[in-house]
Automatic annotation (TrEMBL):
Organism: Dolosicoccus paucivorans
Domain of life of the source: Bacteria
Coiled coil: none
Signal peptide bounds: none
Keywords noted in UniProt: Membrane, Transmembrane, Transmembrane helix
GO cellular component terms, A-Z: plasma membrane
TM region(s), chain numbering: 51-69, 110-132, 144-166
Protein name: ECF transporter S component
A single GO molecular function term of this UniProt record: thiamine transmembrane transporter activity
Ribonucleoprotein listed as a keyword: no
Amino acid sequence: MNTRTRRMLQDALIAVLLSIALSFINREVTPLPLAFSPLPLIWLGLRHGGALSVLTAALAGVVIGAIQWRGFPIVDILLGNVLPLLGVGVCEFFARNTQRTLNNLRYSSTYLNIFTASLLTLMIYYGIQWGLLPSIGIGTTLPISTLLLGLGVTWLILAGSLSLLAKSAPQLIIPRRSKYLPRRETSSLLND
């Protein structure tokens, strides 16, 4: 196994563990429907792309479903935990531009990419978790004002924390030997 694959698997394991840990926060902090578990998966999607983040989201959803299982049908638990997290695949569309703009120190464009990727991912998550699943009898419905307020608060927290991470430690967003950046853009030996 080469170094890049090992690093991708380490990042995926970190994202799964953080996602599982963050899945317990959203039930006890506030009555708003907050969803912090997609945060490490969005980070992984912006760092390594959509394919790895979707596989990691599926694994995290299965583990979260197994932990929360209380005699409900397995299909309900899997649909309620795996399907909403699969929305992180949309980060694939923003990973390349996020890494390029961050590498070129264009922070406003980086923030725009991070905020847009986070918003689309959370809209998919909230749409499935509190829109689609209650319509087929899994989960509970919420008033639209509560749902939108929870979406807005979650979006600002997740995108703000990823933006702070990008500004303070860009190497956590841009992996070494990234597939989205050519070597000439990352080389310190070339004069600009």
